[in-house]
Design goal:
Chain lengths: 182, 152
């Protein structure tokens, strides 16, 4: 029994280290569940609807739950992201079109300083609300890998379309218009 | 009297200036950027060259210019980018303790293994050594002497 003791401790220690390594790899791994479901024509419940995030350029926090009943175009952006600058006019135009029809664009500002994010919003005349994903947890929930990314969420809080990369007018028209009239 | 006042003033200044500097140590970008991460790149800020890293550096420069200490700048970075911005995470959050606990546990385990094994090796060493020559029996001794006498 005594001879088994030390090897057993070494084996347990090695197993614990391997376990930590696997946990690290899995927790940082790529999540494609949303993309796969949407590709199959299914809808997916929007992750973390209750996660409250600070509102950019305003006091307090809001979560996706705050927009329940609306068609939400959730856009992850940052001031340092070049394609975000290119797509912002399109999203702002969409906001003006859908605000009176029960829809809204909701920006999620990712890994930015408040000052830079506010300056960006002012420079591009952004009127839609933005939340600050300070620690990147919401982006992780959505499997965000590179900015910009956009998710279209219906009135029931389910994701119906995904754009990993810069959006275009065709994507927005095809994915948002049917939800507004539904 | 005037000389005494001047001497007192000089002494007070000599004590107060280092104390004030110690209370609010100024820092530099280089001093901070090797202890924080570029959260988007996943690399230490001092080796990151992305646009986001440049914005983070600009933010640190701004805080340095405002006279903030290193600790204050780190707190401000955590408020802006979350706790992952720190190169060494805060030990009281989530499983971050593992960063400190695992190396410490490994060192302790190695020391414990040495403490157990070294005395065993020492005890085993005499047993492994060549055994001392056995005493010759009387008959063998006489035989050796006979053989040696024959060689003479």
């Amino acid at each position: 029994m005594k001879r088994v003791g030390i090897p057993a401790v070494i084996v347990v220690a090695c197993a614990a280290l391997v376990g930590l390594l696997v946990y690290g790899l899995v927790s940082k791994g790529e999540d494609r569940s949303i993309d796969d479901a949407v590709k199959r024509g299914q809808t997916v419940a929007a992750p973390a609807p209750d996660r409250a995030l600070p509102v950019l350029d305003a006091a307090g926090k809001r979560s996706l739950q705050s927009y329940k009943g609306k068609v939400v175009v959730l856009n992850f952006w940052a001031s340092w992201c070049t394609p975000c600058k290119a797509e912002i006019p399109l999203l702002e135009r969409l906001q003006r079109q859908i605000a009176s029809r029960g829809g809204t664009v909701v920006g999620v500002n990712y890994r930015d300083t408040t000052g830079d994010a506010n300056a960006f919003a002012r420079r591009f005349g952004v009127t839609f609300p933005s939340l600050r994903d300070v620690d990147g947890d919401l982006a992780q929930d959505y499997g965000t890998r590179a900015l910009p990314e956009t998710f279209v969420i219906d009135r029931q809080g389910r994701i119906t379309a995904v754009s990993r990369g810069q959006v275009n007018a065709r994507f927005l028209d095809r994915s948002v218009s049917p939800l507004l009239s539904a | 009297m005037r000389m005494l006042l001047v001497a007192v003033a000089v002494a007070v200044l000599a004590l107060a200036v280092p104390a004030a500097l110690a209370a609010a140590p100024r820092t530099t970008l280089g001093d901070v950027e090797d202890e924080v991460m570029c959260p988007v790149c996943g690399t230490p800020l001092n080796v990151s060259e992305s646009p986001q890293a440049n914005r983070e550096r600009a933010y640190i420069r701004q805080l340095v210019a405002e006279g903030r200490t290193k600790a204050q700048i780190k707190r401000a970075l955590v408020a802006q980018f979350g706790p992952n911005v720190l190169a060494l995470p805060e030990s009281d959050k989530g499983v971050n303790w593992a960063v400190y606990a695992v190396p410490a546990a490994l060192v302790l385990a190695a020391l414990a293994a040495l403490a157990v094994c070294v005395p065993r090796w020492r005890r085993r060493a005499p047993a492994d050594a060549e055994p001392p020559p056995a005493e010759l029996s009387g008959e063998d001794e006489r035989r050796v002497e006979r053989e040696l006498a024959r060689l003479d």
